[in-house]
Design goal:
Number of domains: 1
Number of strands: 0
CATH superfamily: lambda repressor-like DNA-binding domains
CATH class: Mainly Alpha
Mean pLDDT: 94
Distance between the termini: 32 Å
Radius of gyration: 16 Å
Structural class: mainly alpha
Number of helices: 5
C-alpha cells in the first residue's frame, strides 16, 4: 500500500483527520520560519540574538513546537518582516 493511500484511508476517521490538519499547520509555520531565516542568511543562533531569544527557541519553532504570537512577532521583526496571520 502506498503512503498516500494509507493517509487517505486514515483521514476518513474525523479524529485522525483533525490531528493531521493541525500537524500540517504547525509544520507550515516551522517551514516558513526556516525558509525566512535561510533566505536572510542567518543561523539559528544569529536570528536568536537579533530576536532576543535563544537558539533553542528557534530550533523548537523550526521543529513545529508551540510558540506565542509575541515570540513569532519578535522573530519576524528581527528578520525585517512583519507577522501576518490569515485564515484560509
Amino acid at each position: 500500500m502506498k503512503i498516500d493511500d494509507l493517509i487517505a484511508e486514515k483521514r476518513q476517521d474525523p479524529e485522525f483527520d483533525q490531528t493531521y490538519k493541525e500537524a500540517g499547520e504547525k509544520l507550515a509555520t516551522a517551514v516558513a520560519l526556516y525558509h525566512a531565516r535561510e533566505n536572510a542568511g542567518l543561523t539559528q543562533a544569529e536570528l536568536a540574538e537579533r530576536a532576543h531569544t535563544t537558539q533553542a527557541t528557534i530550533a523548537k519553532i523550526e521543529r513545529g513546537d508551540n510558540v506565542s504570537f509575541e515570540k513569532l512577532q519578535a522573530i519576524a521583526h528581527a528578520l525585517g518582516k512583519t507577522l501576518t496571520v490569515s485564515f484560509v
